[in-house]
Amino acid sequence: MKLKTLSTAMILATVPMSGAFAAALDRSGQSISAFLQSGNYFEAGISVLDPSASGKVQNNWTPGGAAAPLAPAYRGTSVGEMADDYYFPSAALKLQLTDNFSFGLLYDQPFGAKATYSTDTYLNPLAGGVFHNGIENTEVEVKSENISLLLGYQPTENFNIYAGPVYQTVEGNVQLRGLAYGSTTALGQYNANMSEDSAVGWLAGLAYQIPEIALKASLTYRSEIEHELDTNEYGRSDILALVTQNPAAAIYNVNTNTKISTPQSVNLDFQTGIMADTVAFANLRWVNWKEFSIRPEKFEQVSKALGAVGATPNNPNGFDIVSYTDDQISATVGVGRKLSEQWAGNVSVGWDSGAGNPVSTLGPTEGYWNVGLGLQFSPAPNYFIAGGVKYFWLGDAKAQAASDFGSSSYVADFEDNDAFGYGLKIGYRF
User: Which end of the chain has fewer beta carbons closer than 10 Å to its terminal beta carbon, N or C?
Assistant: First the structure.
């Protein structure tokens, strides 16, 4: 089974992820497959995700530390559609400088979030809430960008040892509203605008290949990257004024600093020829979300004030806006086949563990299963156009307020949700 008979099918292992609805804030999957292509190579792609995620307020939820559960009129009411569409581009350049050295430049948007709760006051007490008359939303948006620079050393045809720095930017915005955040007495009028920060991490890995049977295997480690984001926090907290015995402290607008460490991860990629013109491929990914959290300085002060008056018994010493109890594990397996000199296709199945349940109200799904189809057209041997689509069955989850993190308490049930992902990629060998 010669490599040339599999060249089209092999590229299919790099068909875009077609959008990812992975655990926590994971988005791109941080693949380095483009760097492991033979010769000089360039690719660019875009992925789009169209999710549908809604839930219902659970019957026994007690808002804001109140003495009694939510009023009967609001029990079991709809939280509304909260997951917004989003897209993320990617690009890669790989140069084979000599027989033994290669250079790569990879761009992606590895981490992100985008969610908005409905403004419907009556049907959605979790978002607009009766205290806000449905005027404002609960919203969250996190953006990141990565540029990875790789230098590879190939002592033989079979091995590739690679490493390099990773330049990363992160920014975010959060707006909390409604009963789940305690209205104006607690965090129900909280805002944080986190300005873009840049920092540097690193990656390293080892790849092995046997070209004659289209076998490739790679193991890649990415370090955590520490950020300090200049943050403007503003809002109102009557409890903060009560604890500090300073009425003026109820309304605040301060410039602070937010420390965030994007998580370390490990990717294991494998593919091999299984018959003429056919390859099987697999990807395993681990992300250390258990160590990730977001806690701006003023938010921490308010959350500790809530604990001081007994309003947050599950976290009396303060809590994070977002944090997770488990690490993420995901897997994709599939088969790609060359259909003709110009056409190839693939099918895949994917699974994601999630990062703990109950989950944050800002991202209430618990992992997924998906199925995907990819198609590739090669007008000439040195370039191609590939497209893919995936359907996601999003895992049922119990969404909890940040103050209940680490406990079994939760605000709403999110069930029977799904998503569609679409991807398009072009590749060129030169």
Answer: C
